[in-house]
Design brief:
The chain is an alpha+beta fold and 135 residues long. 33% of the residues lie in helices and 24% in strands. Strands 1-2-4-3 form a 4-stranded antiparallel β-sheet, covered by helices on one side. A 3-stranded antiparallel β-sheet has the order 5-6-7, with no helix packed on it. Strand 1 and strand 2 form a beta hairpin. Bound molecules: zinc ion (ZN).
C-alpha cells in the first residue's frame, strides 16, 4: 500500500505548470462509507454521469484495481472490503486519466470507440485518438 508520503510525492509530480490553464473536469468527490465489511460509494452514479461513462465500466475498473467485487444499486455502488476514501479517490483519478481525459489537450470530451477491434478514447475537442486498455 502507498504511504502518505508516496501520495504527496505523486501529487506534486502530477501537477505540472501547464495543468493550470486546462479546463479542469468537475468531478464530485467520492462519498464513501464503510458498512460491515463493505464500502459504499454513495454518489457513484453522479460520478459516472459527471465523467459521462457507463457506471458499469467505472465499477469494473475500480473492482479490478482494488482486487475486489463490486455491485451497483441505483445511485450507489458497493465494494466488498473496507476501503479508505483516499484509496477510492486515487483509483478514480487514475481512471479519469486513463479513460476520460484526452492525452493531447487534457479535455474530458472523449468517447469510447473501437478501431480495428481495439478500444480507443476519441477526443471530441481535438480529434486525438488514444488506445485504452480493455477491462
Ligand atoms: Zn483532445
Amino acid at each position: 500500500m502507498d504511504t502518505y508520503q508516496d501520495m504527496l510525492d505523486r501529487f506534486y509530480e502530477e501537477k505540472p505548470e501547464e495543468t493550470k490553464k486546462e479546463e479542469r473536469l468537475e468531478i464530485p468527490k467520492p462519498q464513501t462509507h464503510i458498512q460491515g465489511g463493505e464500502t459504499i460509494i454513495k454518489n457513484f452514479k453522479r460520478i459516472s454521469e459527471a465523467l459521462r461513462r457507463d457506471p458499469k465500466h467505472l465499477l469494473k475498473y475500480l473492482s479490478k484495481e482494488l482486487a475486489t467485487a463490486g455491485n451497483l444499486q441505483r445511485s450507489q455502488a458497493t465494494l466488498k472490503g473496507r476501503f479508505r476514501n483516499y484509496q477510492v479517490k486515487e483509483k478514480l483519478e487514475r481512471y479519469i486519466k486513463e479513460y476520460v481525459t484526452c492525452q493531447e489537450c487534457g479535455k474530458a470530451d472523449t468517447k469510447f470507440m473501437k478501431v480495428r477491434g481495439i478500444q480507443h478514447k476519441r477526443c471530441e475537442a481535438c480529434g486525438a485518438r488514444t488506445s485504452v486498455k480493455e477491462l
